[in-house]
Amino acid sequence: HEPQKPLFIMVVVSTVALSREALLLLCFIVVYGSVVSTLDGTAQAFSLVPPTATKTRRQYHAPARISTTPTTTTTTTTLHSLKPAAIPLMDAGKALARAGEVLIDVSAALDLYGGGLSAAGAELRNAGDGLAQAAASTRFKTAQELVTDELRECGTCLAQAAQTLQRAREEAAQDGEDGLERVLASMKEPVAQCGASLEESGYTILRKESPAVTGLAFMAGGESLRQVSPLIEQLMVDENDDSSSNNNN
């Protein structure tokens, strides 16, 4: 920067009237001011002095509002009542238990203890008890799980009864009981079908299908029992005949 000319001229003009000491002091002040002004301009030219930093105001963003109100989800569960099936299932359970007792009595009359016939009778009786228990549980809407378990257990007992009937048939053939063999051979298939139908009915309840689907499974099981009924009656007649002949002898 060039020194300020107006100030320099004023200094030269005033030197005539000033004393030596005042002149020296004034010269020092003028020279110091010129040097400071020159250095300030040079520093700004070469960017030695950092520019004034401008502060940017940080904007404050409020956090997202978190709702503390609990959300509720409404679900609707429809429980179909099986109460109309209670009485028919109870009757079927009693009939199955009675059929098992008949087979046990026949095995006792023929002195076939511990054979396939008595084992089949025990399985039929257990199946009848389970079916009666399922019938009692159908009166309550909250007992569907229990009904399902009882029906499936009943189906398992009938499947095992069909297997033991095959063994009883073989034993009757070995003993020469041709009539008993024919009856047992005719009983095996409907007993197995009844067990499969009752187990299927339990699955339909477990899958929460409509009562109509469960009712169809019940009807199929009832039709199979209808085929077993005359065979059981025939065994009862044969048992009575055997008992009367033994008494006459």
Radius of gyration: 55 Å
Structural class: mainly alpha
Query: Gap between N and C termini, in Å?
Result: 155 Å
Reading the helices and strands in chain order gives HHHHHHH
The parts where pLDDT drops under 50 for at least 5 residues are 1-5, 45-49, 74-79
Number of helices: 7
DSSP strand count: 0
Would you kindly provide a written description of the structure presented here, covering whatever features stand out?
With 249 residues, the protein is an all-alpha fold. The chain is 72% helix and 0% strand. The chain is built from 7 helices and no strands. It has helices at residues 5-14, 20-45, 86-109, 116-137, 144-174, 178-206, 211-248. Helix 4 runs antiparallel to helix 5. The longest helix is centred in the C-terminal third of the chain and has 38 residues, at 211-248. The radius of gyration is 55 Å and the shape is rod-shaped.
List the helices and strands and how they pair.
Blueprint: H1 5-14, H2 20-45, H3 86-109, H4 116-137, H5 144-174, H6 178-206, H7 211-248
Helix pairs in contact: 3-4, 3-7, 4-5, 5-6, 6-7
In short:
With 249 residues, the chain is an all-alpha fold. It has helices at residues 5-14, 20-45, 86-109, 116-137, 144-174, 178-206, 211-248.
